[in-house]
Amino acid sequence: MTIKIISVRQLGDLLMQRYAHSPQEGCWIVAVTTQMTIIEIYQVALGTLDSVSIHPRDVFRHLVATNAYGFILCHNHPSGNLNASSADKSAMSQMAMCSQIMQVHFLDFMIISTKGYRSYRTEHLLPKVELETLIDLWTKVDNM
Questions:
Q1: All residues at 6 or more sequence positions from 126 whose CB lies less than 8 Å from its CB, including other chains
Q2: pTM of the model
Q3: 3-state DSSP call for residue 110?
Q4: Quick one: CA torsion of 57, 58, 59, 63, rounded to 10 degrees?
């Protein structure tokens, strides 16, 4: 079955239906084409009641293998809290940096729970990273 994403609401409802009732935190990747057709939704991490460790290596390995144009990272909070933790914010920053380097578009970070969902793209809260910024970080030399 081919699913084309036509709105954040449609995707949020789909993800809530599938993953909101999970008793422990997990992380899923929605890999998409240039036309926002879902290639695949797959789990990249499974955590505990209140945390999950997300590593860019696990995310991008599969995205490259499936020739994805972009991805949405979906993460559940069994607590019902839709706010990003400091670990979530760190993961968002890592994904933003790695997506620039890998040229696989980081389209959204969504937190879901039984109480609803939150799209960080919709709220303009995704970290913005330019390739030039990464080059500057790489080539910057500290004067000691």
A1: 92, 96, 106, 108, 109, 120
A2: 0.89
A3: strand
A4: 90
Q: List, in order, residues 6 or more apart from 76 with CB less than 8 Å away.
A: 19, 20, 22, 25, 26, 111, 112, 113
Q: How is residue 45 written in tokens?
A: 């991490």
Distance CA 14, CA 1 (A): 14
Are the C-beta atoms of 29 and 72 separated by less than 8 Å?
yes
The residue written with tokens 């019902």 in the block is 80
Q: How far apart are CA 57 and CA 44, in angstroms?
A: 10
Q: What is the pLDDT along the chain (144 residues), one digit of tens a residue?
A: 589 999 999 999 999 999 999 999 999 999 999 999 999 999 999 999 889 999 999 999 999 999 999 999 999 999 999 999 999 999 999 999 999 989 999 999 999 999 999 999 999 999 888 777 777 766 765 554
Angstrom distance (rounded) from CA 10 to CA 5: 7
